[in-house]
Amino acid sequence: MQSSRRLALRAGASSLLGAGLASMAALPAIAAGTGSPGVLKMALVESMSGPFANTGEAVLRNIAWAAERVNQRDAGVKLQLQRYDSKGQNEEALSALRAAIDDGARVILQGNSSATASALIDAINKHNEREPDKRVLFLNYSAVEPSLTNEKCSFWHFRFDAHANMRMAALMDVIRGDQALKGVYLIGQDYSFGQAVLREAEQQLAAQRPDVKIVGRELHPIGRVKDFAPYAVKIKASGAQAVITGNWGNDLTLLVKAARDVGYDGTFYTFYGNALGAPAALGDAGVGKVIAVADWLPNVQTAQSEAFYQSFRARFPKPQDDYVHMRMQLMIEALAQAAQKAGSTTDVVAIARALEQADVTLYGQRGVMRAADHQFQQNLAVGVMERVGSPGVKFDVEGSGYGFRVIRIIPADRAQQPTTCRMVRP
């Protein structure tokens, strides 16, 4: 049974070497031929089907574009990217990991589930100990449960997104000034990340806004709720002036749409409310009401930032192919930098040691890897949803007519959080 699953995964893995992709613009070749000197093989293990397929496709666009950019210049390394569909299941992700390693991957890319990331860290730790000649690195771009770079920190794992506590602190920077806020409703997905967001919201509210009452606390199954109306009704009935949620993907889109449908007019403080259908679902009801935190937003008011966004839109002109991630671009730049510094695409330990010292800048956005816990440090941006064309909103999201006006830039030195990591190095 396990063997047949691995064969199916290998057969289903899509190599981005000139083949068109079914649900996005066809990508040109992004690597030298298989086996060529200086080729670093990367495997994207992500949901490409099921309820979170849109998040997987968004990641794929970003990683492929970043790899194209590296391969189009003389970076001293060529990147080869192959994708594996985890179907949003940990077991499938672990099978994909084994298939990717068998296919020669040296770098595993994943992020759209902290539970999956945790399972991959454990599996990679064991694999690298058992098979030192086939060691792999794990580059994480979105799994933000804090323990992954604290008590579960691993020499083989590098996180390029701000973890949940960092994101929550950025939102609290805005919440502190919201004097009309008297009651909040906490809602999240019932797994490690969603639980961590609610815990941190409680702790930071108690420390920074003890006058604000938590009037509701709810966890719901991840990826399985089709109708959020019952949750929206409870939120409205609670009298909360605001909702704090770490929901992402369809779980966020359906939640905010249900809130709009029942007439809830409070503020949503979100980790991911700035794309993947959420602005379009809210429409005018979200104007001035949806606040999101990210590593970067398209309406950051600098010429370099605008040039970056415009270059992405030129590469992917369809409105539905929006949602560019600056951190993923920095991640691939850091990987290429590390491989070049290590002078190898196969010596994973040397690449990891170089990656610990990564310091990369792209279009004015700088990121530095903290060696102590492998947590990337970068500025964070907080934005509020507004109609495109209003002051500070030149670019909308996914052709929705709504974008995010930047209201805070949290410098990297203020966004960082302490770590409890005790790194064990080979």
UniProtKB/TrEMBL annotation:
<dbReference type="Pfam" id="PF13458">
    <property type="entry name" value="Peripla_BP_6"/>
</dbReference>
<keyword id="KW-0732">Signal</keyword>
<dbReference type="InterPro" id="IPR051010">
    <property type="entry name" value="BCAA_transport"/>
</dbReference>
<feature type="signal peptide">
    <location>
        <begin position="1"/>
        <end position="31"/>
    </location>
</feature>
<dbReference type="InterPro" id="IPR006311">
    <property type="entry name" value="TAT_signal"/>
</dbReference>
<protein>
    <submittedName>
        <fullName>Branched-chain amino acid ABC transporter substrate-binding protein</fullName>
    </submittedName>
</protein>
<dbReference type="InterPro" id="IPR028082">
    <property type="entry name" value="Peripla_BP_I"/>
</dbReference>
<feature type="domain" description="Leucine-binding protein">
    <location>
        <begin position="41"/>
        <end position="384"/>
    </location>
</feature>
<dbReference type="InterPro" id="IPR028081">
    <property type="entry name" value="Leu-bd"/>
</dbReference>
<comment type="similarity">
    <text>Belongs to the leucine-binding protein family.</text>
</comment>
